[in-house]
């Protein structure tokens, strides 16, 4: 079975599970192993009515204990995940200006345009785009009217809705957007519509001085010689990382 056939089976299995069917009932319609089906559906929460139906179903009688155990494991896993997320937030704590400055340099080093004279950062995650917009304004002293928006979009996605979404998020006016790059979907690919709902967005700026300054920050950061200079504040703070 091909990759997309597997995805279709997974989608069907999850839809049947959401309808309250037992694993045994689902396996009559989807040809996969019981272990695979369990992995696909383990995080799907059943309604109380659906649980009652399964518990009262004679065909499911011998699996009451398994149902309870699976539900307990799912609940435990969700609780553990939420706990780890909260612990992660505590570990990070409140970010200082310097923290955000360094974080932006690291993000640009990973996802930013390295071509000389061209400043650019691309991502599909709205949180990262929003962070870098603020970073360019605060630390690279880039006014909004000099920024341009770029959009990489699959052909079956809504171009108008996507442009509006990114414009609202970044505050870059639509008249400062470049022409959208439309990607043709591969024939027979039914799942592209679920990838990057609003496409991949790029913050763009043509400015050699800004680009070279950022490249200097990246070089200094990864060579342990970064200096923090916040020219926008009343005091200039400098610190060397060794």
Walk me through the topology.
Layout: H1 3-18, H2 23-27, H3 34-41, H4 48-56, H5 64-92, H6 97-111, E1 118-123, H7 126-139, E2 148-154, H8 159-170, E3 181-183, E4 200-206, H9 208-222
Parallel strand pairs: 2-3
Antiparallel strand pairs: 1-4, 2-4
Helix pairs in contact: 6-7, 6-9
Total strand segments? 4
Largest sheet: 4 strands, mixed
Query: Topology as H/E string?
Result: HHHHHHEHEHEEH
Point out poorly predicted stretches.
Answer: 230-242
**Total domain count:** 2
Radius of gyration from the alpha-carbon trace, in angstroms: 25 Å
Q: Please bin the fraction of helical residues.
A: 40-55%
Strand content: 5-15%
Helices, by number, come to: 9
Explain what you see.
By secondary structure, the chain is an alpha+beta fold. The protein is built from 9 helices and 4 strands; from the N terminus they run ααααααβαβαββα. The chain has helices at 3-18, 23-27, 34-41, 48-56, 64-92, 97-111, 126-139, 159-170, 208-222; strands at 118-123, 148-154, 181-183, 200-206. A 4-stranded mixed beta sheet has the order 1-4-2-3. α6 packs across α9 (208-222). The radius of gyration is 25 Å and the shape is elongated. The N and C termini lie far apart (54 Å).
């Amino acid at each position: 079975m091909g990759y997309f056939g597997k995805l279709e089976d997974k989608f069907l299995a999850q839809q049947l599970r959401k309808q309250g069917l037992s694993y045994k009932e689902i396996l009559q319609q989807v040809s996969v192993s019981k272990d695979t089906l369990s992995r696909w559906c383990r995080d799907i929460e059943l309604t109380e009515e659906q649980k009652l139906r399964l518990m009262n179903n004679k065909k499911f009688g011998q699996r009451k204990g398994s149902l309870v155990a699976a539900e307990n494991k799912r609940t435990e896993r969700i609780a553990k995940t939420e706990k780890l997320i909260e612990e992660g937030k505590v570990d990070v704590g409140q970010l200082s200006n310097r923290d955000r400055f360094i974080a932006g340099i690291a993000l640009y080093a990973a996802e930013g345009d390295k071509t000389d004279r061209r400043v650019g950062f691309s991502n599909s995650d709205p949180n990262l785009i929003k962070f870098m917009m603020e970073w360019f304004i605060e630390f690279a002293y880039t006014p909004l009217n000099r920024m341009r928006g770029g959009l990489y979009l699959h052909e079956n996605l809504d171009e108008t809705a996507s442009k509006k979404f990114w414009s609202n998020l970044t505050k870059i006016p639509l008249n400062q957007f470049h022409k959208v790059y439309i990607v043709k979907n591969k024939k027979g690919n039914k799942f592209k519509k679920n990838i990057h709902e609003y496409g991949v967005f790029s913050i763009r700026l043509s400015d050699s001085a800004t680009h070279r300054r950022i490249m200097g920050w990246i070089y200094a950061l990864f060579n342990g010689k970064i200096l923090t200079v916040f020219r926008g504040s009343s005091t200039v703070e400098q610190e060397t990382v060794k």
